UniProtKB/TrEMBL annotation:
SMART domains: S_TKc. Pfam families: Pkinase (PF00069). This is Cyclin-dependent kinase 20. Coiled coil: none annotated. Residues 4-286 form the Protein kinase domain. PANTHER family: CELL DIVISION PROTEIN KINASE, CYCLIN-DEPENDENT KINASE 20. It catalyses: L-seryl-[protein] + ATP = O-phospho-L-seryl-[protein] + ADP + H(+); L-threonyl-[protein] + ATP = O-phospho-L-threonyl-[protein] + ADP + H(+). Its EC number is 2.7.11.22.
Amino acid sequence: MENYKITGRAGEGAHGFVFKGEDLRNDEVVALKKIAVNPDSEIPNNVLREILTLRVLKYTHIVKLLEVFAIGSSVVLAMEYLPWSLYEVIKNKNHSLNLAQIKTYCKMILKGVNYMHSHHIMHRDLKPSNLLIGTKGILKIGDFGLARIYDHEKKRLYSHQVATRWYRSPELLYGSKTYNKSVDMWSVGCILAEMIQRKPLFPGETDIEQLAIVLGTLGTPSCENWPGLTLLPDYNKISFSHSEPKKWSIILPDADCVTLNLIGKILIYDQNKRYTAKEALQDRFFRERPFPCRISQLPKLEESAEPPWNFGEFDEFFDGMTVESKGDVTVK
């Protein structure tokens, strides 16, 4: 199948390399994600979930899946090419995010999450590096390898080993297997706070430290503010010193009261009282000055220069492809 030509390296995902490519049929720039599959076994669940999820979710703020095909023992996902992520925006010292820009990014994230949740899908790994940004500035949710369908009427059990640690909700840290879509909203709250202070809100280096930081910020939980707390699988495995909740105005001194109010309704222990994406979109945060800015007023990033090619480093990716010339590879 000779429809694509690789033109550069785009990054490396959890399950395979991602390359920048060109669709030779229409000259469209694409991202090609190649995932190695054991020829003696079935396609991994995470790969199937990502493919099936992206086929269902067709929305402005969800990355678009263009095509799926096999190369030897590997599966390749051809997706729209989005050169940047929110992580790069936050870390870029040349651009300081103002509140209007933060509101616009936050609104796009929430719209994507709301659409996703309305289709009974939870992402389970929302973080700045998975929030991709195109050349026109539109933000889209990507990397659905941990996505799952949920049904609140059926008591399904899910793995608690999901979400990147800094954005992992407290019920996950306590080993819950009966959580719901609100785990995504916890991540959104962490991301909003990170845009404001330009650094992670809860940067734990281990799961225990992560939980300690969360508890040290929100205060020691109780059955009053966290129903079912004592029933969580890991509740009795470790104890922490009692702590009082800190004021959000002290944690995020640069945020106004309206912003802090929104964060305070998202980052709470009780998953059933945590703001939904729909509720957050209706919050006064978006209806008070400064209003969300236009997408054209968001930071302008420059695409980084292509790194030098190292064919030895990417032998696995090139397996099953024809190398036409240095830096120029075409999919069979």
